Amino acid sequence: MSLTLSSRKMNPLGGGRRMVIGDLAFDSSYPFGGESLALTTLGLDKLDMVMIAAKLGYTFEYDFTNNKVKVFAPAPPIVIEEEQTIASNQVTLNYPAAAILNIATATQCQLLIEASDTLAANEVQLQPPWLPAKDRPLRFMPAHRER
Question: Are residues 10 and 20 in contact, defined by beta-carbon separation less than 8 angstroms?
Fold first, then answer.
């Protein structure tokens, strides 16, 4: 990936300092750790401060040590309650779960059990916890068996 600076305007601030105003454009990929932004691209030999306006929910930070622009995606919303319909004895949440306190059907609360436990009636089995949430959907498997 590379950054392109356009509409660059150099404004003198006094004391030998200058301010550069311009538009940064990213291409279609983003390298781990940020995108390099060489001082020569800005027409400067030293940076005192970098301000990059947020856009489309993304925020930006300049890494002075490595001369890189880091991009941060918007955080997902905090969901207090999510209503789902059980299909094929499982549910996939719409949002990542920080904590699950309760799962209930229309008639009763379900007991939460670990992935390694055997599923029984009125229980919900959490999927394997060792996988990071970004690598798998968080699924529940409620048992609908009669005793």
Answer: yes
Whole-model pTM: value is: 0.53
Q: 């404004």: which residue's tokens?
A: 11
Q: Other CB atoms closer than 10 Å to residue 10's CB: what's the count?
A: 12
DSSP-based three-state secondary structure for 141: strand
Question: Which residues 6+ apart lie within 8 Å of 10 measured at CB?
Answer: 18, 19, 20, 43
Q: Which residue ranges make up each domain of the chain?
A: 3-72, 91-142
Task: Report residue 69: phi and psi, to 5°.
Answer: -100, 125
Cβ 124 vs Cβ 140: under 8 Å = yes
* Cβ-Cβ contacts under 8 Å for 140 (sequence gap 6 or more): 90, 91, 103, 124, 125, 126, 127
Q: Mapping DSSP to helix (H, G, I), strand (E, B) and coil, where does residue 72 land? A: strand
pLDDT of the chain, 147 residues: tens digit per residue: 578 888 888 888 888 888 889 888 888 888 888 999 888 878 888 888 888 999 988 999 999 999 999 999 887 777 778 887 777 677 777 776 777 788 887 787 888 877 778 877 777 877 665 555 544 444 444 444 444
